[in-house]
């Protein structure tokens, strides 16, 4: 008897997934893409020589140390192609370094040497981890996740890291712990913020938070790498939060402190404007942003050029089967 298997909404045929060679022959891949895309858009403006220098710096920023990890078979495919590494690395939000998308150059100022992550608060086993500790203590794996920005654009990125619930098990929150707060690196001389913040007192450092049961969900993930390598600085090196059912601003970058709390913590965007950026920030096509619709999104499609493909927004970014029960 022939069994016909209907793919789930998050699955994709194997031939549409990014080839392994893309991940592990990265430098050659980046050079090819840079010649086809970034050079084509930059060089007519800045000239060939300067354009080549910019291309080389972008490639260098993405050519971090290799980080091999076995794919988690549950999260090894989605219903759309993986976004090219070079596009994901040149189109970022990182408000500590500016408000535009091309902040990859400014983000290189982030100091990541001897990084420490303090885990504190209402836990039985408080601890400070360095990057070696994280790789040795927790099960490192690769997960392919959709990424949805509140600005209504999206990508698919292969993250490398470990489930947040592994950290929960290691530090053992007390019964009083109901929330968790993530605090990002901040130095007013380095993370100068966006230009529009001039004259305004923004709530630095960047903070984000979750309910403890959200952090314990199977999807919740700490990333220390992507595309087969350690995280580039523009992606939030050396460790960031990845929460694929929520809008991207919930994913705190360059995390320096994780604190377990008994009350809901203040968070950066929710403090600035709670009407536009609520604490939960779950992807919801039926809840428009005050200034634009969330019913559709612009997906950065595969290929060397920055091309947009309009797609319908999925409730919880397509991960409702994992998280919808958290919000009943």
Low-confidence stretches: 1-48
Number of strands: 12
Class per helix and strand makeup = alpha+beta
Span of the ends, CA to CA: 40 Å
Morphology: globular
Q: Kindly state the percentage of residues in helix.
A: 10-25%
Give helix and strand order, one letter per element, not per position: HHHHHHEEHEEHEEHEEEEHEEH
Radius of gyration, in angstroms, nearest whole number: 19 Å
Mean pLDDT: 86
Strand content: 15-25%
Number of continuous helical runs: 11
Main sheet characteristics: 7 strands, mixed
Describe it for me?
- The protein is α+β, with helices and mostly antiparallel strands and 328 residues long.
- The protein contains eleven helices and twelve strands.
- It has helices spanning 20-24, 26-36, 38-46, 48-62, 85-90, 104-107, 131-137, 164-171, 212-215, 268-272, 320-323, and strands at 116-121, 127-130, 141-148, 153-163, 179-184, 207-211, 221-226, 229-230, 240-242, 255-261, 296-300, 308-312.
- The strands form two sheets. Strands 3, 4, 7, 8, 9, 11 and 12 form a seven-stranded mixed sheet that branches. Strands 2-1-10-5-6 form a five-stranded mixed sheet.
- Helix 2 packs antiparallel against helix 4 and helix 3 (38-46) packs antiparallel against helix 4.
- It starts with 19 loop residues before the first helix and ends in a 5-residue tail after the last helix.
- The relative contact order is 0.16.
- Mean pLDDT is 86; it is low at 1-48.
């Amino acid at each position: 008897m022939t069994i016909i298997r209907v793919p789930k909404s998050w699955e994709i045929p194997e031939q549409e997934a990014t080839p392994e060679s893309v991940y592990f022959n990265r430098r050659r891949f980046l050079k090819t893409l840079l010649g086809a895309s970034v050079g084509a858009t930059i060089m007519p403006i800045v000239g060939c020589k300067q354009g080549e220098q910019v291309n080389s710096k972008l490639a260098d920023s993405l050519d971090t140390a290799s980080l091999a990890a076995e794919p988690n078979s549950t999260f090894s495919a989605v219903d759309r192609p993986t976004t090219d590494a070079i596009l994901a690395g040149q189109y970022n939000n990182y408000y500590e370094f500016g408000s535009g998308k091309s902040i990859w150059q400014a983000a290189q100022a982030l100091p990541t040497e001897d990084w420490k992550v303090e885990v504190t608060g209402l836990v039985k086993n408080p601890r400070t981890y360095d990057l070696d500790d994280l790789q040795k203590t927790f099960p490192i794996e690769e997960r392919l996740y959709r990424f949805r920005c509140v600005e209504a654009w999206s990508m698919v990125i292969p993250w490398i890291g470990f489930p947040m619930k592994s950290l929960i098990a290691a530090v053992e929150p007390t019964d009083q712990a109901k929330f968790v707060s993530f605090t990002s690196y901040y130095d007013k001389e380095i993370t100068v913020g966006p230009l529009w913040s001039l004259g305004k007192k923004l709530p630095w450092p960047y903070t984000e938070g979750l309910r403890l049961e959200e952090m314990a969900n199977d999807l919740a993930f700490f990333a220390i790498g992507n595309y087969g390598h350690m995280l580039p600085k523009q992606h939030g090196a050396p460790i960031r939060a990845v929460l694929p059912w929520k809008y991207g601003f919930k994913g705190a970058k360059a995390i320096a402190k994780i604190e377990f709390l008994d009350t809901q913590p203040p968070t950066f965007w929710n403090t600035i404007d709670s009407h536009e950026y609520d604490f939960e920030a779950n992807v919801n096509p039926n809840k428009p942003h005050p200034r634009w619709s969330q019913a559709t999104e612009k997906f950065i499609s595969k290929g060397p050029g920055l091309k947009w493909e309009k797609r319908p927004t999925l409730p919880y970014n397509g991960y409702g089967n994992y998280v919808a029960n958290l919000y009943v």
